[in-house]
Design a protein that fits this description.
- The structure is a single chain.
- By secondary structure, this protein is an alpha/beta fold.
- The chain has helices at 18-34, 45-49, 57-65, 68-78, 81-106, 120-131, 167-175, 201-207, 229-240, 254-261, 281-287, 297-306, 323-329, 339-352, 354-371, 376-389, 398-409; strands at 6-12, 38-44, 110-113, 139-143, 161-164, 183-185, 216-220, 245-249, 272-275, 290-293, 310-312, 333-335.
- Helices cover 48% and strands 13% of the residues.
- Uridine-5'-diphosphate is lined by residues 16-18, 21, 222-224, 249, 251, 277-279, 281, 296-299, 302.
């Protein structure tokens, strides 16, 4: 297919907002870097290409994750390889036809997964197709979109490459039997818009309908507007009055948006900007002094790039748990779930803390900026482009193929 457009199939599923955001970040960086040389297809393999009940995965996740006990149970029971490998193998026998269908439809030169449940089954189907001569040798890459703690199904030794965002994740991959040679660590793929310069803050604030000079807090709860956002607004209002402004991004939570819009405004009241799902979070982050958010990997990585001190107010059980010590131990923020105490911390950070606190707040912002990885998405995309151009998918452990390739090219 030399000279033709290369086709890249990115498998994702809308369980939370982060997988889709990562897939779109990769697509945008491909377009920016390579124009139309690569054609990118973002596909929800579970929803669009598997039969019932497997196609209800996103809905099942939304349901499970709202119940901490059920989610923890599902997560922990399936976490050991001894359980999930045979389990996925059984499910694979029901959904393989759908995966074959997707590969027939998109004829990819590279398959990329940005979802923990899209390694084992697609890799098995691809191997079978390659062995039967239905598909030319084609690489498979995983881009892990969790930040620290994550489910072991992310790591399948049959993948050609696995992109991990942090050292914590790299260690987890190794302890799951991945060869260090299969692993690459650049950072999370965050949309290119986050690495572009923004207008000066007062100008940016005016263009967003904010007060140009009041301290500003950004309040978000992931793509679904999760967490005690309304209580937090209430407590911030009580504690700060009109000395500070708050931007609330409600994501897809429409009811929250309506309730917040009904709050009183004017002198003495907390100045509030209420948004639904926005596609310019980078501008809102650039315009604010700090962020209050659940411990979502995407939002944390974005806030680091923006150099914002981060106040974590909760987390999805299991996969987001490690993000809390990551933020606290790297001294780029704090963790507090009670809205009244959250208001206290914000008051201290932005208004009442005195000169020492002011210096520490600015230091948190600088440390955040230095942990941010705005270039990661481009580095990932360059590596993926190389994988699309040079297939070396192996039938056995992909590591052997890598070793053979290195020997052939004479690399160390
Ligand atoms: N997001 C967005 N617009 C919104 C709300 C959220 O673009 O109105 C994006 C946010 O910037 C981040 C993603 O959705 O990239 C949320 O991912 P995260 O991993 O933080 O949490 P999840 O929603 O996956 O639990």
């Amino acid at each position: 297919k030399d000279g033709e457009k290369k086709r890249i199939l990115i498998g994702m599923s809308n369980t939370g907002g982060g997988h889709k955001a990562s897939a779109e970040a990769i697509k945008a960086a491909f377009a920016e870097r390579y124009g139309s040389k690569y054609e990118i297809f973002i596909v929800d393999l579970w929803k669009e290409h598997t039969p019932a009940p497997f196609n209800t995965l996103p809905d099942s996740y939304s349901f499970l994750v709202k119940n901490a006990f059920l989610w923890r149970f599902t997560y922990e029971v399936t976490n050991p390889r001894l359980i999930h490998v045979p389990y996925l193998s059984v499910i694979g026998s029901f959904v393989a036809a759908g995966v074959h269908g997707a590969l027939d439809k998109y004829q990819p030169d590279l398959v990329v997964s940005v979802h923990p449940l899209m390694q084992h089954i697609p890799i098995r189907v691809m191997r079978e197709r390659i062995r039967n001569g239905v598909m030319p040798p084609t690489n498979f890459a995983t881009v892990v979109t969790d930040f620290t703690t994550c489910h072991n199904t992310w790591f399948c030794s049959g993948a050609t490459r696995c992109f991990v965002p942090t050292e914590f994740c790299r260690q987890l991959a190794v302890s799951n039997g991945m060869d260090p040679d299969q692993l690459v660590m650049h950072g999370l793929p965050i949309r290119p818009a986050f690495s572009r310069p923004l207008p000066p803050r007062p100008k940016l604030r005016r263009s967003l309908g904010m007060d140009p000079s009041l301290p500003a807090v950004l309040l978000v709860g992931g793509g679904e507007g999760m967490g005690a956002l309304e209580d937090t607004v209430e407590q911030l209002g009580r504690r700060l009055g009109d000395r500070c402004q708050v931007v609330v991004i409600c994501g897809r939570n429409k009811r929250l948006q309506e309730r917040l819009r009904a709050r009183p405004q004017g002198p003495g009241h907390l100045p509030l900007v209420v948004c639904g799902f926005v596609d310019n979070i980078h501008e809102w982050m650039g315009a604010c002094d700090t962020i209050i958010t659940k411990a979502g990997p995407g939002t944390i990585a974005e806030a680091l790039i923006a150099g914002l001190p981060i106040l974590l107010n909760g987390n999805v059980p299991c996969q987001e748990e490690g993000n809390i010590p990551y933020v606290v131990d790297n001294r780029v923020g704090a963790f507090e779930t009670r809205p009244d105490r959250i208001a206290g911390i914000i008051a201290n950070w932005l208004l009442e803390g005195g000169p020492e606190q002011r210096i520490e707040f600015e230091a948190m912002g600088r440390r955040a900026k230095s942990l941010g990885r705005p270039k990661a998405v481009y580095q990932i995309v360059d590596d993926l482009a190389a994988l699309a151009d040079e297939p070396f998918f192996d039938f056995g452990p992909a590591v052997e193929a890598l070793a053979g390739r290195r020997a052939a090219t004479g690399a160390a």
